[in-house]
Structure prediction request, 1381 residues.
Amino acid sequence: MLVVACAVGVSLTAGVYLTSSRDLLRCVIGISLIGVSANLAMFAAGRSTTASAPPVVLEGARQLPVDAANPLPQALVLTAIVISFALTCFSLVLALVLQQRTGISDADALRRSEPPPCPDGKPPLEGEC
Amino acid sequence: MSSLVLTPVLVPLGTALLTAALVGQPRAQRLTALLGTGALLGCAGALLREVQRMGPVRTHLGAWPAPFGIELVADGLGAAMVLLMAIVGAVTLLFQQSCADPAPARPGLLPLFSVLLAGVGGTFVTGDLFNLYVWFEVLLLAALGLLALGGQVRQLDATLKYFVLNTLGTLLLLVGIGYLYAATGHLNFGALREAAGRGEAASWLPFLVVPLLAFLVKAGAFPLFAWLPASYHTLPGPLLALFAGLLTKVGVYAILRTLSDVFAASPRVIYECVGWLAVPTMIVGALGAAYHWDLRRILAFHVISQIGYLLLGVGLGTMAGASATVFYLGHNVLAKTNLVLIAAIVFRLGGSYDLRRCGGLYKARPLLAVMFLISAFAMVGAPPLSGFWAKLMLIRETLLLERGVWAAAALTTGFLTLYSMSKIWLEAFWKERPPRDESHGSEAGHALERPEGLGCAYAAVGILAGLTVALGLFPEPVVSFLDRSAGQLGVARVHPSPGFGGAP
Amino acid sequence: MGWLALVPLTSFFAAFALLLRGGPPLSVSVPWVPSLGVDLGVHLDGLALLMVLLITGVGACVFVYAAGYMQGESGRRRLALVLLLFMTAMLGCVTADNLLVVFACWEITSITSFLLVGFHHEEESSRKSALQALLVTTGGGLALLAGVVLLGNMAGTYSIQELLRTAPAWREQPLRDVALLCVIVGAFSKSAQLPFHFWLPNAMAAPTPVSAYLHSATMVKLGVYLLARMDAAFDGTPFWGFTLMSCGGLTSAWAVLQTLRERDLKRILAWSTVSALGTMVMLIGLPGDDSALAVAAFVLAHALYKAPLFFVAGNVDHSTGTRNIDHLAGLAPRMPWTAAAALLAAASMSGFPMSFGYLAKELTNVAKKEGGLYTWIGHSSVLASAITVAVAAIAAIRIFWHRGGAVVPGHVHEVGWSMRLPPLLIASVGILFGVRPRLADPLIGAAAEAMHPLYDFAAASATARAEPGWTALLVALTLGVGVFLAWDRLHDALGKVELPSVLRLADWYERLLRGIPAAARGVTGLLQRGALTGYVTSLVGFVVVVLGAVTWALLGQRGVAVEVSPGGAPWGKDLGVLGAAVVLSVGAVAACLVRDSFVLLLSSGLVGMACALLFLFLGAPDLAFTQFGVEVAFVVVVASTLLRLRRMDARPSAPQRRLPRIVLSTSLGVLVTALLLVALGAPTFDPEVAAFFAEHSVEDAHGRNVVNVLLVDFRAFDTLGEIVVVLVSFLATLPLFQALRVRGGEPS
Prediction:
């Protein structure tokens, strides 16, 4: 239990650290690491963190064995894994396209949607400042 | 007719599939999408009627009984939200058919649009915490797809910020669901409600904070709203209207569902915190709007400020607070969507979203001016428009609970809203049109002289303005319906309101 | 648009008939929003009828006048429409019994007033004035709303009559003075009392018919009306009386001094309106019943002389093109009708005997005596009435008969009939009531009775006659003539006195108006910098703070079980789990440290693989295989795109401070872990749901792999969403991917 929780903490720490990086690629990878951490946490929530029998009903039996893992979080995590994968793919392509089209890989320098204000402090007029 | 509760998900999903299949034929695709949202509107209306007549409508998917399988529930709150969603979806799609800053007709547009509606619909009817997360992800991806659709660099930059901050939010939600499951063993709302009502719940209810934080990110509350003003203004008109009208409201709905219904037994300190978060959310949003000159950015910041009002209603933590919140929400969705659509028409006519380049529309387009006045003053909360009742219900409950500071903040925000709405009016409508700057002249610049293809746009704006006025003149059915719906929520048992004037 | 005058005229006669009928007030009510306690009801008592007669009577004249004044102007139809809307709202405001309906109409008058003041909206000054009027009156309206709601909450009803009737029962509640203050602020902003007075003179940017209607006869009296309505409930509460008397008196004196600083005829009249409104507010604040009579008389008298004077100013402006009194003199021969109207109105304004103004002044004096007024208010009111006399003389004598060095433009001619008649008509009524006071008796008597229902005002004019205040009148007239003669000198003298900006409330408004964007810039610049890392940091930082607080609270609770044991099994048995966790940590740390982006991807892949291993060892083979597959696909996808881009060697990331990031991420990691352990230790876990799946998977769902059964049956709806996500991600990524490929193919 403690081990899994620590794994959650470590991957989360690394993920947040990377996400707060100015490098686009690191930022995106960081998010996927946080995703791994969240999946692990969800999995741990099933409280079957030591039971090692997979939740499969054996031939002939009508019910799961007593030492089987809790199947519900597994199903949930399975869904979550697929979803985070989809998100990661999207974000990677997005980051690469951005990098390619702007030549900038610094997230803070990439101020296309929110250009900096004019020297007089007023918000920029489209195409000026 | 319990299968009606499936329609908010299945109808848009079906529409999405069909439109995706018809990618090669734009006209058929468009027609399908329109028919699909029309059908959605019909189903939403039928669902609301059903709820009105029979009380909450539920269905258990796969016939697995309640705490085990996934349950779909439409109570008064859910059905009202679905109807709002259907209205906004239909109206923005109608607007998209005009030439006022429509989204680029990429093949993915209409499928993504429908999927977004499906995601929103799913969150409104689901009765299961993890399922809620799944629909949040659906609408997140659809929103990302729509943001990136235009392919301009500033849109992609906006998409990135939207992605990073929102994904942090959904992941937080996932962790939070994990906590709640670990503590209770339940995901079903009904089962969670029961668990929260038991005495020993005090030991795990604090975990509620984690999903709540995620919802606050989604709703765009202070100080978690940065993604919203960073991205919304890069969207084309109808999509911005859809986003501004619906998406943050999904977050508010989730907060309302958790705090006012499922976990109404939460410690009071949580409500207190939500209420105090609402204050800076209102003020900062309104100030952000006061700073900007780009119509889209002004309206985007106002979304935040209105979220503050809604959070205030939730933070009151009473039944009347909940029903005031829902009324405000409905009013806000209509008025806000309309303002964005009007901004798109202003852009079409004047060639720019920037107020410094607009002008002269009062003389040139009186009808548009009237529509703007209706929506803007509804936003401000001027009578007898929808916003007045919304503000009244909220302020009354706030003052009944003797929350002077909150009420003062809400009223101040009303003043700031008036400030920026009058700014738009003065600049875009009253001021003389500034001479056109040739170097930035866009192709839309001539449109004041020859308006074409704005029929659908005016129809859409007219429908919403009509609804705003109707809600303002005849609020009684809606108010009493919402009062009854609030009575079905968990909060009604925990914190029924002190009656008006001391009477029960 | 002159025919539109028929609309108010009809209501005028209806109200008149109602007044003549006498009897108890007419009260009708239909529910509007019963859930919120809002009824659409009218309560037509004397006060309401007085206001209705003013609104419709002056309104009819305004429509006739505007038809002449606005002839040929574009946009006059819109003006008429908005005026009509305004009039309706005004009527609603003074007849409604429900405070919320009153408030609703009140706000509509603010908004329509905004549109009317900004009629010449191409001019920036006009826009600014309109905005000022809107912000001040609507800002006050917000306070009024709070006040109304507070009153409603205290009394349990929004019906004014009900409120007044039950006042003794609820008015001792602690929030009463707050509610009163809110109502007073609302009323003051509308009726241009200190400190909100400055908007009214600026609102003179409106076309003259609008000024005559809104800013002298009707809308600005709404505040007075509301205070008069509520007076019965609060007459005698010290806070109410003191605030009204002091603010009203001060406004009256201050505004009348300001008239001396102006040269624009309309602005002079506007300041004197502010002064008159101040007097009315002061009179309401006075204790005693005679004050009610004085208020009613003064409201009527003021409308009967000020509206004609505005019309006169409009006529002069219309014919000469200027309103500056320096350029106007000796107009009487050219504009005899207008001059006559001015003279009649001015007589009433200065309180000459045989005018209604005289009667009003008498009643005022009676009320003041009755009220045992503070002496300073008494002195200031002498000054006020003296300067009022001077203003009247300016408007009537200086412009029309005086022959100073002023220039008389040559082309001046009398205005048309539609502009001559209205001022003449209204001013004559003012004289008629003065000559035959008993004609006005039912009107002001009924109004006063509505204000103070227990008092009998049958013979109103007789009250005034009882003690004629000749001395006060003479003093005022003499002083007034003096001021009139010394007007220019006084003007110059006052012009030299520059008020400190701290005392100029219009400057405070300007400061507020400049302050909003400045504050906005500050706040927005702080919170919305445009840098992604800043956004991430503040989001994560807030989450850390909140989770920290939650953890703190949980630690403070007694008996929180924290799950720390490895579930009873010895550590050694789960060596695989431990190993996987170590690998995961290595990968995570490496991902943070490496510089090369390809190695970064590999390290993050390592984390995923380790996670898969964890799943495998913990009894979740399905998860493990999925995670493996996903990781492999991930690395393949990334590597191929990276290779295509030939950007394998990412530059070292831009210099960035590491310490805050480390602190932030570590604290979040620690907090989430700690909370997870607490959650896992909670004794409330209900295994029922998990057990259900264990039991029913084979029996009812016919599947042996329970996870699969969950995915395709028990929770198939999740899976539907999941499939949608995958499809949508494809839809969303495709255009991006195409962009990437096209660009990548280009020779660079």
